[in-house]
Amino acid sequence: MPSSPKTIHLIDDRRMGGVTRFLDRVAIMRPDDDTLFVKRGGMRGHAHEAGTIVSHLAISWRTLPMLVTLRASNPDARIIHAEHSYCAGFEAHCVLPRRQHRFHTLLRTVYALFDEVIAVSEGQARWMRAIGVVPDRKVRIAPPLVELAPFLDVADFVPRRAPRYGFVGRLDRQKGLDTILPVWRETAPAAARFEVYGDGPMREELEAMAGRDPRIAFHGLTDSPSGAYRAFDVALMPSRWEPFGLSCLEARAAGRPALVAPVDGLPEQVARGGGLVVHGGEEEWAALFASNAASVGAPEAARRTAVSDAGNARLRWARILNGEDAATPLPSREGAATAAE
After folding, report:
1. Alpha helices, DSSP H only, in 211-271?
2. Measured between alpha carbons, how far apart are the two ends of the chain, in Å?
């Protein structure tokens, strides 16, 4: 019996985050697509009336039986996996060297169940290929989709004696604020400010690092991430790993150039302007803070490249979800931006 033309997206986390926001955009672009919640730890995948099934599920040995039966129960469906979690930085910081072979075996085994594997950045795709966990013919590259309008509405920052730096995101080990906060305190000028928006397991530790420095403010969670960017001029992203880095895209859309760590999907976001990759570790961060980060990039370049990248991502996902050939050239990034407007 031929499979249905319907497309469904499988998720295992309902919390507001990158995947949820991505699916909000898909719902606008493709209102007939469905989203189904899959309980983590379930041992069995089910048959679905769908021609295309897109997995946004977390991969682990525990979920392997469910993914195997999902494949077996839907033999005629095109099944795609979008890899939102794993990347070179994750492996370097979260997988012990003696466990790397086992980790690669898990990924190779799971990716073999899918017809296509979506990498959310060029950097993530390079890592997948380098460790040999998925054939090149299966890899498609498509950054996440996100609504940029609220960020594009943020006014340009007003030049100040010293820049206001900022961070918007979860305060955990992945984001790496602990690696630069002491450096910032030692080297940033007296007039500089550091505005931190977000919460997470490292908040108390980071507040202790900040001490009583009056230049640093922890604002906690915000109901308006776009509004947070009004409070500062330069976004800091010293992440240990970042398959893509939605916050970097949002910062650029708000006209806030970004200083980013040289990991995974972050460097390609600022490669055409609107930010700077900090390759030199603590010494280079210190030099940038001491010099008021004058060479970070122009706000107009940050906005322009963000809009262009978002348009490119929309075209890529439309092509993937429509089952179109990956070999057909895409428009230039600037052309992709126009097509998305």
Report:
1. 225-228, 246-253, 266-269
2. 40
3-state helix, strand, coil in the chain (%, to 5): 40, 15, 45
Rounded CA separation 133/108 (Å): 4
CATH of the domain at 176: 3.40.50.2000
Contact indicator for 188, 162 with CB cutoff of 8 Å:
yes
Structural domain span for residue 28 = 7-141
Radius of gyration of the chain (CA): 21
Domain stop point among 141, 172, 197: 141
Do residues 177 and 256 both lie within one domain?
yes
Distance between CA 9 and CA 6 in Å, rounded? 10
- Characterise 169 by phi-psi region: left (phi > 0), alpha (psi -120 to 50), beta (else): left
Class of residue 130 by CB neighbours under 10 A (exposed 0-12, middle 13-18, buried 19+): exposed
* Tokens (6 digits) for 310: 């978002």
Residue 81's identity, in one-letter code, is H
Is residue 316 in a domain? Answer: no
Clarify whether residues 134 and 170 are in a common domain: no
Which of 141, 161, 188 is the last residue before a domain boundary?
141
CA distance 134 to 197: 37
Structure-block tokens of residue 36: 């189904």
* Phi and psi at residue 145, to the nearest 5°: -95, 145
User: Mean pLDDT of successive 10-residue segments in the chain (341 residues)?
Assistant: 75 77 88 90 82 95 94 96 97 97 98 97 97 96 94 86 90 96 94 94 96 95 91 95 96 95 96 90 91 75 94 95 74 49 43
CA 213 to each of CA 121, 168, 194, 201, 284: distance values in angstroms, whole numbers, following the listed order: 37, 19, 10, 21, 22
